[in-house]
Design a protein that fits this description.
0% strand
């Protein structure tokens, strides 16, 4: 199997995460539940609202893990082509720093429809970029070493969250919220999400180097996901270490929805398993019903473009022009999502063609 064929499922999964994130963002702009919903202590008045919110919890782990997978693959491909290891790492670091720049300029401003420049906030794209920079120094190691680093990041984060600090003191808040905690400066601290990126690189090693056939990749992914779910469930049922928010009882929505900002140990283990299992599902559908997932690859080939442009469109239409901003509920979110995809899908196809033909440095980075 060629390298391009081998990674169709990566593009398709990134496309799936992209459209799921677009639905979550459509809800953010058009769903009135956000007028009363505290992201740190969510309340849901209906199954529909819970499903809309919970669906989005897969997105950030999915993006971090797929970025980790592609970071590892990029390094392997470049060194195999004769590039010096330091040169291959520098390429990854440049792209990571570019993502940080995109976050603090374009992404931060796009949320409000470009009404103001907000340089004092880092978010998910910057977190991916910083994780990519750190992972550049690990991609040459064995999968066992990276597995140990990823799990250590998960466990160490659970301990470091206990560090007390004054969130109003920038000298304390900025480093803590950059790496450990979530707050006004950053909702996506690097350490736990870096752990997911590292785990994504481990899975890429399995998908590309260790498992040679589609059947092995599917079965292997399922066998990896099951113990991850089991470990997460045991941690959650313990109601102690590795948990942040309490739950009512096993099976209640609160059992599955521990804190995301910052993520708990339970959250990271559970959604690591969910991403790997979803990848297996994408692989299965790609073999038995390819028409259901092949179109997702068009979006997955340009994930940064899709992310940046769809938020900008929502921000301008709903926030800046003040059209239907948080006036509806689940149905309004779904309608906005369908219209958004109708606009974004041809744009993703167009930019994919531009990027494939272009030799421009910046376009290649997007």
């Amino acid at each position: 199997m060629s390298g391009g064929e081998r990674f169709h499922f990566i593009d398709r999964f990134r496309g799936l995460v992209g459209i799921m994130m677009a639905l979550g963002h459509s809800s953010y702009y058009f769903n009135s539940v956000w007028l009363i919903l505290d992201p740190l202590d969510p309340f849901f008045g209906s199954i529909g609202q819970f499903a809309l919110r919970y669906m989005g919890y897969l997105c950030a782990p999915g993006f971090l893990m797929m970025n980790g997978a592609m970071t590892w693959f990029s390094y392997q491909r470049r060194t195999a082509a004769g590039h010096a290891p330091w040169r291959a790492r520098w390429h990854l670091i440049q792209r990571g720093l570019f993502l940080v720049l995109v976050q603090i300029t374009w992404v931060n401003s796009s949320w409000g429809g470009f009404t103001r420049l907000r340089l004092n906030h880092i978010g998910i794209i910057a977190c991916i970029g910083l994780s990519m920079c750190l992972l550049a120094f690990l991609v040459h190691t064995s999968w066992r070493v990276r597995l140990g680093v990823g799990l250590l990041a998960f466990v160490a984060h659970a301990y470091l969250l206990r560090i007390p600090y004054d969130p109003h003191n920038p000298w304390m808040a900025i480093p803590m919220q950059t790496f450990i905690d979530a707050g006004h400066f950053n909702k996506y601290p690097v350490l736990p999400w870096f752990g997911l990126a590292v785990m994504g690189s481990v899975m890429a090693t399995a998908w590309i180097d260790l498992w040679k056939t589609p059947k092995q990749r599917i079965l292997g992914s399922i066998l990896v996901a099951i113990p991850a779910f089991g470990a997460a469930t045991l941690i959650r049922m313990g109601r102690g270490f590795g948990n942040i928010e309490p739950f009512s009882y096993v099976g209640h929505w609160s059992f599955f929805l521990d804190q995301k900002y910052p993520p708990s140990l339970y959250h990271n283990l559970w959604f690591f398993g969910a991403v790997v299992l979803a990848m297996a599902a994408i692989m299965i559908l790609g073999r038995v019903l390819p028409f259901l997932v092949s179109w997702l690859g068009r979006i997955g080939k340009v994930p940064l473009f899709f992310y940046g442009v769809h938020i900008a469109l929502l921000g301008i239409f709903s926030k800046r022009l003040d059209l239907y901003y948080r006036e509806g509920e689940v149905l309004a979110s779904l309608i906005g999502w369908v219209i958004l995809l109708a606009v974004m899908y041809p744009l993703a196809i167009w930019f994919g063609r531009v990027k494939r033909r272009s030799k421009n440095y910046l376009i290649r980075l997007i």
